[in-house]
Each structure stands twice: as C-alpha cells, then as structure tokens.
Write a structure and sequence with these properties.
- The complex is a heterodimer of chains A (80) and B (211).
- In chain A, 82% of the residues lie in helices and 0% in strands.
- Chain A is mainly α.
- Chain A has one domain.
- Chain A is elongated and about 50 Å long.
- Chain A starts with a helix and ends with a helix.
- With 211 residues, chain B is an alpha+beta fold.
- The chains are: A mainly alpha (80), B alpha+beta (211).
C-alpha cells in the first residue's frame, strides 16, 4: 500500500513538473509577443529546446533550459 | 527498507533541482563558438537577431547533448553544425548592414494640419506605452512622416509637431523622457507611392525606431 502511495506521489510530482515547464513556456511566449530583439529570440529558442527535452522525458534538462530562457526573457524586457 | 527508499528518492529529488548551464567550452564546439563570436563582433545581435539566437541556442543544446556522452554522436555533431551554420548566416547578414528595429504604430491618424492625439490614436499609443514599459531597457525615436502633398517645409514642420505630440503623450503616460526623442521626417522617407490615395495614406505614419 505504501509503495502504491509513494509511486502515486512520484507520478504526481512528475506531472506537475511537466505542466510547470509547459505553462512557463506559454507565459514566456505571451510576454515576448512582438519583441524581436536578440534576447527575445534567444528566450523563445531556449524555451523550444526545453519543450523538446520535456517531450523526451528529460525533465531536469527541460527545467534548466527553461530557466535559461527566462533569464534571456528578463534581459529582453519580458517579465520574469 | 521503506526509509532507505524515501531517503534515496529525496536525494534524487535534490539532485534533480540542481539547474546548470551547459558547458560550451568543449573542443567539439570550437568551430561553432568561433563562428558565433565572429557574428557577434559583426553586429549580428542587432542586425540578425533571430539567426544569432538560433546559433546560440543550438550551441547550448549541443553542449548539453555532448555532456551526455556518445549516445547520439550524429545528432550531437548536427547540432554543433547547425549552430555554426546559423552563426555564419547571421554574420553574412550583419555584414550587409541593417535597419533599426521599428515598432509600428499602425492606424495612427491626425486631423488635417493638426498634431493633436485623437481618441483612436490614444488607444494605439496606450499599447505602445505597455510595450515600452515591458521593454524598459530600450530607447526609441518617435519618427513622424507625411505624404508629399504641400511643400517640403510645411510637411517637415507638421511632422515635427506630430512627433513631438506623440512623444509628449508617451511621457505623460509614464515613459521617461530620457528614453525618448522625436523627429519629423516630412515627406523624405516614403514607403509607398505618393501618386495614389492608398500610397499617401501609408506614407502618413508615425513609428518608434529602437535606438
């Protein structure tokens, strides 16, 4: 029973991590709409990489790239 | 036993939280790094921002993939090659020179011989204010243009008044004067033919040129 609970908790944790990256990528895209600066483009590109890594179930890497994307978005003037 | 599993999972979670930037200094990325540096020196971040961003993003991605070992050597090499190729394209584009980024204020109209901000223009400028607040690091020139009817001197004076009027509106809505300048170009920079009504309408415009 405890194992089942533990696995359920882990599954929920993984799902929330996935949703977190996807939501953050969507928010970043919205914030940078119309911004064609270098930092804005780089933020979008890095967010795309994050989502690709997420599709490959590499959550850790996806979060790293998402963090880099948000750093660039902040430089571009998009709210972090 | 359960305790050990819990501790193991906690340690795993902690390690999963460590977010690191990929190391791009590896020798496999020498060519891509050099191409990106050359493009940057040529002004690619300003003149070819998308290409340069694609180059840098691919560099980071390649660096990450290389850090995972030789699971997909072909894909790793392809990412590095893409980074290099995009950087070379960005450099070539930058070498040709570039126009400043323009934030268009589509739809701004003034009454004949007037520089007052109409309610329709105010709605458009409010969006520009939001953009400028979001992009707090940029400075812009308010550039106003006319069509070719009337004399050069008249058009230049009218465009100067309209540029100043738009700048005043932006200032009054919280944009620092230090980030703004205004310039009227009169009829000197048409973007369409002044021979047609539609062309003249396109030429009568105000835009924000990112400095």
């Amino acid at each position: 029973m405890r194992i089942v609970l533990l696995l359920s908790a882990l599954f929920a944790f993984a799902m929330s991590a996935n949703a977190g990256v996807v939501d953050r990528a969507a928010a970043l895209q919205a914030q940078l709409k119309g911004n064609n600066s270098y930092h804005a483009h780089l933020a979008r590109e890095l967010a795309d990489v994050a989502e690709t890594e997420l599709d490959q179930h590499d959550i850790n890497v996806a979060r790293s790239f998402m963090k880099m994307a948000e750093d660039q978005a902040a430089k571009a003037g998009g709210a972090k | 036993m359960m305790h050990r599993i819990m501790i193991g999972l906690a340690a795993l979670s902690m390690s999963a939280c460590a977010l690191t930037t990929p190391d791009t200094s590896i020798s496999e990325l020498d060519n891509a790094r050099a191409a990106i540096a050359a493009a940057k020196a040529a002004g690619a971040e300003q003149c070819a921002p998308k290409l340069q961003a694609q180059a840098v993003a691919n560099l980071y991605w390649a660096a990450h993939e290389f850090s995972e070992g030789d699971y997909h050597p072909d894909e790793n090499a392809e990412l590095a090659a893409t980074a290099e190729s995009k950087a070379k394209q960005a450099r070539a584009k930058a070498a040709k020179g570039c126009k400043p980024e323009i934030i268009k204020l589509n739809g701004i109209r003034f009454h004949n011989d007037k520089a007052d901000i109409t309610p329709t223009a105010a709605a458009i400028l409010d969006k520009a204010v939001a953009t400028l607040k979001r992009r707090a690091s940029i400075k812009v020139e308010v550039a106003a243009h006319t069509d070719s009817r009337a004399s050069d001197a008249y058009n230049l004076a009218l465009s100067n008044r309209r540029a100043a009027s738009v700048m005043a509106y932006l200032q009054s809505h919280g944009i620092s004067a230090a980030r703004l300048s205004a310039k009227g170009y009169g009829e000197s920079q048409p973007i369409a033919s002044n021979a047609t009504k539609a062309g003249r309408a396109q030429n009568r415009r105000v835009e924000l040129r990112v400095q």
